[in-house]
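Posting this for the archive.
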Amino acid sequence: MEYQEAYAQAQTALGVTGTVSASDYPMLAATIGIDVDPKTAKDVLGVARSVKAAYEAFLGGGASIRGARLAGKQAVDAAATIDDACAAVDAVSWPALG
């Protein structure tokens, strides 16, 4: 929930026209100066941009990981023996990240 709230606050803050107050975005304000890149997280909008970028970067990788994980679980569930289950785990093809 923490990350979802930070992302929601980032989306809201980045959509504001005019002055943005850190007190209106406590999840973002909590990491001013320390979030991802302290040089770009000097204010609440800097943190909002870094949170948004991290979220967008995670989407592609997260979807690939989720697909591999769920396919692996399905194969283990379908296994008739312990050896088959172990083979299913070994056969999971994890995506390369980065």
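The chain has a mean pLDDT of 92. The first helix runs from residue 2 to 14.
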